[in-house]
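Design request, C-alpha cells follow.
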C-alpha cells in the first residue's frame, strides 16, 4: 500500500504491475480496495491494475465532509494524474460503478474503456434494506475478529459462498481497538453523507453521454432473499441500450458480492475478451 495525495487528501493505493494498459478500479459504498484482488489476479501481469480506498474508507483520509459523486470523480482524476495516466480503463463496482459512470461522462478523454459491475443505475429505495447488514456494521465494536467474521459468514448472501477473497476483504475492513475489540475502518459520517447525496442523483441522464466501449456485468442472485438483486435484468438491459457502445453480460450463480469477490470463469472471460477488444 502506498499513500497518494489526490484532490488534497491522502488515498491508500495498491498497484499491481503489468505490461499492458492501466486498469483503475473503484470500489463500492462500504468497501475497500481489497475487493479487487480477484480482478488483479485475472488481469496482472498482462495489465497494470490500480485499486484504492475511497475517501472515508480503509486507510484513506476521512475528512468531515466531501462524499459525493463529483468529489469522488475529482479524487479519481487526481489519482490518474499522480500515475501520469492521461487515459485508463476504469472499472467500478456498485457505488464505484456510479463513480466510474460519472467520470466517463465528465472526462470522456480520460477513459479508454469502462466496466460497470452491478452498478451504474439509480438504486431502488428498497435496495437499502438489502444493504442494511453492510451499513449496520459501521461503528459497531465486535469482541474479536473471529466474532466479526463469524457473524458475516452467517448472513444469507454469504451462506455457502464464503471464500478466501471475502475473508481477506473483511479482515482488511476492521481495525483493532486498544481493548482488543474490532470495528470497521469505514467512517459512518462518510456513508451518511454519501447516501444523502446519492438519493439526489439521477444516473440515467449520464448513460447516453458515455462515449467509450462499455461492459456491464450483472449479478442475478439476491442478497437477503432469492430475488432482491441490486440490478434487475430489465434495468440492466435499459442501461446497456442507453450507453451507445455497450455489452451486457449476466453472470449466473453470483450475487452483488460474489460477482466480484470470487474466481468466476465467466467474469474472467468476459473482462479479458472486452479488454482485448473482442
Amino acid at each position: 500500500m502506498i499513500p497518494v495525495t489526490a484532490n488534497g487528501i491522502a488515498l491508500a493505493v495498491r498497484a499491481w504491475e503489468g505490461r499492458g494498459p492501466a486498469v483503475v478500479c473503484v470500489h463500492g459504498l462500504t468497501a475497500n480496495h481489497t475487493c479487487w484482488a480477484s480482478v488483479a489476479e485475472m488481469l496482472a501481469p498482462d495489465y497494470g491494475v490500480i485499486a484504492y480506498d475511497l475517501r472515508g474508507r480503509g486507510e484513506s483520509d476521512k475528512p468531515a465532509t466531501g462524499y459525493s459523486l463529483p468529489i469522488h470523480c475529482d479524487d479519481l482524476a487526481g489519482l490518474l494524474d499522480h500515475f501520469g495516466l492521461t487515459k485508463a480503463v476504469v472499472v467500478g463496482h456498485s457505488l464505484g460503478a456510479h463513480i466510474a459512470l460519472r467520470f466517463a461522462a465528465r472526462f470522456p478523454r480520460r477513459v479508454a474503456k469502462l466496466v460497470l459491475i452491478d452498478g451504474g443505475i439509480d438504486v431502488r429505495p428498497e435496495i437499502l434494506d438489502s444493504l442494511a447488514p453492510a451499513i449496520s456494521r459501521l461503528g459497531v465494536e465486535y469482541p474479536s475478529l473471529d466474532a466479526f467474521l463469524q457473524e458475516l459468514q452467517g448472513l444469507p448472501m454469504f451462506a455457502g459462498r464464503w471464500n478466501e477473497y471475502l475473508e481477506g476483504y473483511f479482515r482488511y475492513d476492521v481495525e483493532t481497538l486498544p481493548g482488543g475489540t474490532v470495528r470497521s475502518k469505514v467512517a459512518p459520517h462518510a456513508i451518511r453523507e454519501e447516501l444523502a447525496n446519492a438519493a439526489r442523483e439521477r444516473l440515467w441522464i449520464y448513460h447516453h453521454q458515455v462515449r467509450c466501449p462499455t461492459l456491464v456485468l450483472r449479478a442475478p442472485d439476491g442478497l437477503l432473499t432469492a430475488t432482491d438483486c441490486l440490478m434487475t435484468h430489465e434495468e440492466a438491459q435499459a442501461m446497456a441500450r442507453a450507453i451507445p457502445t455497450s455489452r451486457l453480460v449476466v453472470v449466473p450463480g453470483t450475487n452483488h458480492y460474489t460477482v466480484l469477490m470470487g474466481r468466476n470463469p465467466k467474469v474472467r472471460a468476459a473482462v479479458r475478451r472486452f479488454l482485448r477488444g473482442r
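Comment from the thread starter after seeing the answer: thanks! The chain has a mean pLDDT of 95.
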